[in-house]
Structures are given as C-alpha cells and as structure tokens.
Amino acid sequence: MRALYFDADPKRIALIKALSTVWKKAALSRLSPLKYAEVEEPEIPGPNWVKVKNKMCGLCGSDVHFLFMEIDPRVAPAAVPPLPRKFLGHEMVGEVVDAGEGAAEFRRGDRVIQRIDWPSCFQKESAPMCRQCARGNYPLCENPGWEGLPLNVGGGFSPYMVLHKTQLIKIDDAMPDEHAILIEPTACAVRATLKRPPGEGEKALVIGTGAIGLSLIGVARAMHPDVEIHATYRYPHQAEMAMALGASGVVEEKDAYRRVAEITGGRHFSGLFNNEMVIGGFDVIYDTVGSDRSLKDALRWARSEGSVVVVGINFAPKKLDYSPVWFQEVKLFGINCHGREVFRGEEMNSFEVALTLYREEALDFSNFVTHRFPVQDYLKAIETFLDKGKTRVVKIALVHA
Ligand SMILES: [Zn+2]
Ligand SMILES: [Zn+2]
After folding, report:
1. Fewer beta carbons within 10 angstroms: which end of the chain, N or C?
2. Domain span at residue 78?
3. If 0-12 CB within 10 Å is exposed, 13-18 middle and 19+ buried, where does residue 401 land?
C-alpha cells in the first residue's frame, strides 16, 4: 500500500532544513525524509490489536508543521526518543476489517476514530501503567518512547492501519464521515475549554480562527451559553464562521491592542519600540495560533490574575517576553491534545465530552470541511492549506479510494 510517512533520519532532516532557507518547498521534494511511498500492508501484531480500512482523514495544522520539519532539535519534546517512522494522519475515520481475540468488542464493519496517537502505556500494555496513563492522560505518559511497539502500523493517510484496541473509539453509523474526522480536533477544544473554563460574567478571547480556534468557539459556546467569547481573525471567511458559531464579536489581528482595551474596558498603553500593553484585559485567553507573537500578545491582553491557555503548538519557539506572568500575575496553562476530564461532575475522556455535545446537537459541524482531495493529491491539499486567504480553507479532508 502507499502511505504518507516521515523517517526520523537526522542527515536528511538537516539537509532539508538547510535547503529550506532558499527553497521553501524542499520539504516536499524527493530529497525529503517525508515520503508517499509503498510500504507493506500491516497485519495485526497481537491479540489486542485491530486492523482498520481508512475512509477519510482530516489534515491538521500539526501534520503541516511535521511536513515542513519546523521542529527545533532543542525543544523539550525533541529530547525524548523519537519514533523512527511516523505515519501521518490522526483525524481519521475508518472501518474495522480484522480484530484480535482480545479485541472482541470490535467487529468487522464497526466505524472507528483514533483517540491515542503517540506511544503510551496503553499500546505497550505496561503493568502497572504510569500515573498519568492510569488516570487516562495518555499524552502525558511518563514512559515515552516506542520500544516494543510495531513500526509499520500505517496512519490516517494510509489505506490501512493497525491500532491497539485502546487507541480507538467506536462511533455511531449515523455520523457522517465529514463529522467523524472533526471529533479529534473537537476533543482538543474540549480540553482547552475545561483547562480553564470561562466563569459567569467573564470575557474570553480565542486567538486564531483556524479549525481549532473555530472548534473552541463552538465548544465554549455550547458549554457556556451566556459568556462573552471574542475571537481574533486574519481572513474575512474566518470572521464570518466565528460569528456563525456563536462568537460575541471578532477582532482583526491588526490594531488588536486598541480593540482589546475597548472590549474589556481595559487601558491601552504604548512605550518605546512599539511596546504595547493592555492593563485590565480578558479574563481568559485561548491561544490557538501558538506562535511567539500570539503568545506574547495573549500574555499582554489578559487582565491581572487572568489566564492564558496555550492550545496551538510551537515546535520552534524563539524569544518570549513572559514579564506579564510576574508583572500582572497572569497564569499560564497549556494542553497536549486530550485526556481525562471532569464534565458535569463525571470523569470521562475529552472524546466522550465531544461526542456528548455532538449527540445533544450542541455543535455545528456543517461548514467545517471546505475541501476534499484524494490522498494521493496531498501536495495539492497542502498548497490549499497554506493559501488560506484565497482558498477559504477551514478543514481539508483527504479521502481514500
Ligand atoms: Zn489534529
Ligand atoms: Zn504512561
């Protein structure tokens, strides 16, 4: 089968990083450690494993980061052992074609989505599990590394993949594929919202209105119908969709300092060297962009003792002015995908929260998937993703034949 994967080959990565400074698309060339190539079709490696035939998979911003190898070898995640081969595509939906005898809860024809992506005590069947996996927080696994796990497993951008039964969640037959691939990003939005929920009478800001920012607006609105939720945007189609999903107002990225002060009743100050600051800003800010710039702004737009939740990932952070953390005692949180939540007084996984809201028809997924491409046209899909202003992309679905 042909699969999209990335080999952790340090020499090739270094070569592409060097070439990328003069040739932006080097990462998509034949020299790249990223490959769309023939690999052996995987078979279930153990009794607790399941084989899935994929139908569709969403293209995530993190996939694109990976594709362009925007990863600084000095960031914390790069210190732990990498996967020698990473199959891309985690926002998948597919059908079970084979299940081991220990995975009898899955049957041929069951529709499934992927919950756990990276190695954890779940796939390794560690006994006992580390304390985070034992609580259901698999992205925070304290036994990182892939040792003992099969390598050729496939991903959402491969026709087939094999997964440990704990990596999968069954979904209803009635849920369209275009909705099923949105449950994973929605689970991330759930975790962000529950990490620091907006309280009664508070004002929240979502920085960024890409797929995750828009999901977050939808989730926060579903959970907190009466709270003011504002959002920043870059392109007009993002602003329209944010309002349709229940945002109280939108702020264009340029000139945002002044607008933030107006909306929150704060005061806008500027010092030397374009040094801008709002005193008395938002109660809680969700940064779904995750750039050095967006996090700097988030910290300066939060009120004293307000909160910032880092949602967008940054694999190559540079300099960050964290002075608002002491100057205004701003609290800084982060999330890594999904895990254990407490929702309406009950313990459950972020996916279960997302599925609960979906079944209650509290989420509007109708306009999220804007583009569809056959998997082999992944390069076209990436170009479409990168040209958001023109293509009006929200979410791209890669479809299997
Ligand atoms: Zn994703
Ligand atoms: Zn663990």
Report:
1. C
2. 2-182+369-399
3. exposed
* Distance, CA of 203 to CA of 230 (rounded, Å): 8
Distance 216 CA to ligand 2 centre (A): 27
154-212 confidence digits (pLDDT tens): 999 999 999 999 999 999 999 999 999 999 999 999 999 999 999 999 999 999 999 99
CB 209 within 8 A of CB 145: no
Ligand number nearest CA of 122 is 2
Which ligand neighbours the alpha carbon of 311 most closely? 1
Ligand 1 centroid distance, CA of 351 (Å): 13
Which CATH number does the domain housing residue 89 bear?
3.90.180.10
Give the distance (Å) from ligand 2 centre to CA of residue 139.
8
Q: Which of the ligands is closest to the CA of residue 215? A: 1
> Does residue 257 share a domain with residue 300?
yes
Ligand 2 centroid vs 146 CA: distance in angstroms?
Answer: 12
Contact predicate 349/188, CB 8 Å: no
Is 335 in a helix, a strand, or coil?
Answer: coil
Q: How far is the centre of ligand 1, averaged over its atoms, from the C-alpha of 192 (Å)?
A: 14
- Pick the ligand that lies closest to the CA of residue 65: 1
Domain end among 318, 336, 354: 336
